[in-house]
Amino acid sequence: MLREFMDPKFFVEELEEVNRKLVKGAEILTGIPDVEVEPTPKELVFEEDKMKLYHYLPGERLSCPTPILICYALVNRQYMMDLQSDRSLIRNLLGQGLDIYIIDWGYPDHGDRYVTLEDYIDVYLDDCVEFVRERTGCEKINLLGVCQGGTFTVIYTALYPQKIRNLVTMVTPIDFHTTDGLLNVWSQHMNIDNMVDTMGIIPGEFMNVGFLMLKPFQLMVDKYVGLMDNLDDPATVANFVRMEKWIFDSPAQAGEAYRKFLKDLYQENKLVKGELEIGGRRVDLKRIDMPLLNIYATEDHLVPPASSIPLNDLVGSEDKTLYSFPGGHIGIYVSSRSQKELAPKVSEWLIERCPKGRDGKQVCSPEAGGKGAGKPSAKEARKTAKKPAKDPSS
Amino acid sequence: MQESGAAWSDMWRTWQRMQADAYRGWMDMWLRAWGRQGKADEGGEKGAADLPGDLYRRWLEFTREMMERFAAPAQGVGPETFTKMFQSADVYTHLYSMWTGMYGRYRKALGEDGELDLKALGGLLEEWADEYRELVRKIFAPALPEQLQWVAELYSGEIPLMASGLMAKIWAPWFEYAREAAARGMSLAKPSPEAAVEMYEGWRKAYEESFGRLLRAPVMGYYREAAEKLVKAVDSLNEFNLVLSEFYASLQGAGSKGLERLGERLAAMQAEEKGEPMSFRDLYRLWWQTNEDIYIELFRTEEFSRLLGSLVDRGMQFRQAFQAYVEEVTKELPFPNRSEMDHLYKTVDRLKREVRALKKELAEFKASQKGE
Predict the structure, then answer these.
(1) Residue A354 lies inside a defined structural domain of this protein
(2) Chain B residues near residue A7 by CB distance under 8 angstroms
(3) pLDDT in tens, A298-313
(4) Same domain, A22 and A106
(5) pLDDT in tens, B40-61
(6) What CATH number is associated with residue A191?
């Protein structure tokens, strides 16, 4: 069989095929328009410093009046959840009848080097929660955290459990002392203080070097070789370029927040130990007593399952679900399986836990005598959505 | 006239005698130079490196003696002028001799195995410094007025001894590095990442113990601050490069290991007569996956993790030092530097927090007023 491989005719044929694709690919690449991301319509409803809060225009029907606020990571951009119309977790969740808000953290620059983890949780995230509560009239809202944003939502919910109806975490690092992930291993020997003191903000490019090193051959070599196989397919090339844009669209990390996140969590694992303090208050995970849906990806190389799974044992919730998704850290948002399975799973889980009033109708605040029950229709939600953005300083 | 004739007669006899002596001197010198007189003669002890200087010095001695005798009757321009002229020329021979002497001592300090005996070198250089003292005294003292004779003593005293010690300290690490590098080059069949690291480590060590010391010496003068910061930046860049070479070496080592494992896998596949690569694409896939496995294995090790941490840390140290230098040399330019902006950012951050707190207090106050 190896002789077959060594056959010159074999080589020439392969070479011919590769060259044909290269020529065709060059034609496609030079003719491809600028890729567009975030196709789902949304509007800016609130902003504070560089942080922006968007509200997705709801679908025709609302399955549950309780809105869901999505908190993405500071690393990379939140539009991974709405990369393109046929690969959009957001679009699928909207299609299931959820009312969705999402936080865009923006691009920190040197002026943000002193922004702390407390600022992200106690100020920006809390102000978003407050805004959504006030806007929708719901006493409690649903919170969905993604990756590092998941850690933020866990910390937030432990500090403000009275504001959260259900908590959903996706590929969220909780136990940082697992040795399954290279980031967990490498971070143990990093002089974080020196990094932050020197750079002020941690550049996205610096972070990307670390991420690429996690799978050097796959991410720096094979990914591009693999593209060659499909260079003659315009749709595949456009998808590839769109993903490439997302991967390298990497905001910098605000220095002080990065310092605390890396030192207190990655290096000292304080969240799991119950030693983490935010603004002088200890973060007690047992205070998370509402329903929890914890989703992890079995092949996740950034946040290994061993880091996410322990959350269910640490919280005080009685209603808690651990959901295992067969895929990787990125595939959980963009794979076709994700579109078919994950979005329905999340929406079903939330709708099942949507509170009902005395009359059996879904409401968002049964505690307040059914407050918010007057917002069941998508039409009204659309109306609310058209309110101008609120300036927090006014 | 008789007196005058007698004088010329003496001079002529002297000249003839000198001619004869001169030829004899030349003949002796050449014989010694070519080793005809053996080691019993004082010249035989000298190394080959000293031969040209020796030859030239002897020629000068001979010529000076001849000219002094020839010009003896002429007062003022005779012996005194020639003596000074030849003393000046002699300076060159003495200096040449001095340097060849030092070189010879370095050679002596290098054993047959190429090992540099630093202790022996120290002793040899002290001997050389003694000779140097004597040399300086000989060169300068006659040329200086009596009142300034102390200058020759000064420059032939402690200073050359100290200077020779300093020179020994500066050059010794490089002799050692050169010896080790040569030995390593000869003993290695093929270059390896570890060898590259060792080479760089050796280089850095030699640099640290020689020019590094000079660079770290206190800087003085108008550009003191900038120069000091630049030196620190260069120093930290060297430190960074050292770890970087280790880092690259570890990656290269994994690459070599990957190639070996790929060979093993191919061999195993061939032995099984099934599943061997069908196409170049198959081989490529096997190649990158094998390498990926090897690199991940490396990346998981504690050793690599420490190395990566150290690399980043040294990189940060260099960046800090370089930033300090850039700020120093651009401080007169009409734009703010990073430190100044950071100060400003800090102030803005503090003010934002104050405004936020005040707004909160105001909102609470308004709410309480409404409640009343």
Answers:
(1) yes
(2) none
(3) 999 999 999 999 999 9
(4) no
(5) 444 444 444 445 456 556 665 6
(6) 3.40.50.1820
For the question of residue A128 being annotated catalytic, the response is: no
Between B14 and B313, the higher pLDDT residue: B313
Report how far residue A232's alpha carbon sits from residue A255's, in angstroms, rounded to the nearest whole number.
43
Q: Which residues of A are less than 8 Å from B310 in CB distance?
A: 189
How would residue A29 be classed by pLDDT, with cut points 50, 70 and 90? confident
Q: Higher confidence at residue B208 or residue B67?
A: B208
The verdict on residue A369 lying in a domain is yes
- CA B145 to chain CA centroid, Å, is 39
CB A52 within 8 A of CB A44: yes
Contact list, B273 vs chain A (CB under 8 Å):
1
Q: Are residues A292 and A160 in the same domain?
A: yes
Are the C-beta atoms of A182 and B305 separated by less than 8 Å?
A: no
- Please report residues of B whose CB lies closer than 8 A to that of A185: 299-300, 305
Please tell me whether residues A93 and A6 are part of one structural domain. no
Q: Pairing between strand A87-88 and A82-84?
A: antiparallel
Query: Could you tell me which chain A residue has the CA closest to the CA of B295?
Result: A216
Are residues B305 and A189, on separate chains, in Cβ contact within 8 Å?
yes
The verdict on A56 and A11 lying in the same domain is no
- Looking at the structure, do residues A104 and A47 belong to the same domain, yes or no? yes
Instruction: Say if the Cβ atoms of B345 and A195 lie within 8 Å.
Output: no
* Contact between B317 and A194 using a beta-carbon 8 Å cutoff: yes
Q: Is residue A192 in a domain?
A: yes
B residues 304..323 contacting A (CB < 8 A) = 305-306, 308-310, 312-313, 316-317, 319-320, 323
A199-218 mean pLDDT: 93
The CA distance from A332 to the nearest CA of chain B, in Å, is 23
From B276, B281, B309, residue closest to A191, measured CB to CB: B309
Which of B13-17, B207-211, B244-248 has the lowest average pLDDT?
B13-17
Q: How many CB pairs under 8 A join A and B?
A: 93
Q: Which residue has the higher pLDDT, B63 or A46?
A: A46
Task: Specify if A219 maps to a domain.
Answer: no
Q: Is the pLDDT of residue B273 over 70?
A: no
Contact A222 B288 (CB under 8 A): yes
Coil, strand or helix: which one is B114? coil
User: What confidence category does residue B69 fall into, taking pLDDT thresholds of 50, 70 and 90?
Assistant: low
Domain that holds residue A372: 42-202+252-385
Q: What angle do CA A281, A285, A290 make, to 5 degrees?
A: 115
Residue-wise pLDDT for A111-136, tens only, equals 999 999 999 999 999 999 999 999 99
Contact (CB<8Å) A198/B270: no
Concatenating the DSSP letter of every residue in A144-192 gives EEETHHHHHHHHHHHH-GGGEEEEEEES----TT-SSSHHHHHHTT--H
β A82-84/A164-170 pair status = unpaired
Q: Which of B269, B303, B308 to mutate to test the interface with A (most CBs of A within 10 A)?
A: B308
For residues A257 and A74, the answer to whether their CB atoms sit within 8 Å is: yes
Shortest Cα distance from B370 to chain A (angstroms)? 18
Q: Kindly state whether residues A295 and A319 are assigned to the same domain.
A: yes
Q: How confident is the model at residue B72 (pLDDT cuts 50, 70, 90)?
A: very low
Check whether residue A154 and residue A7 sit in a common domain: no
Give the Cα-Cα-Cα angle A281, A76, A342 (nearest 5 degrees): 85
**Would the CB atoms of B313 and A194 count as touching at under 8 Å?**
yes
Q: Which residue did the predictor score with more confidence, A232 or B151?
A: A232
Whether B316 sits inside 8 A of A1 (CB atoms) is no
In this structure, are A193 and A72 located in the same domain?
yes
Question: For residue B80, is pLDDT > 70?
Answer: no
SS3 at position B277: coil
Hey, which residues does A28 pair with through a beta bridge? Answer: none
Q: With 60 as the cut, is the pLDDT of residue B22 above it? A: no
pLDDT value of residue A32 = 79
**Separation of alpha carbons B348 and A290, rounded Å:** 39
- Tens digits of per-residue pLDDT, B335-345? 999 999 999 99
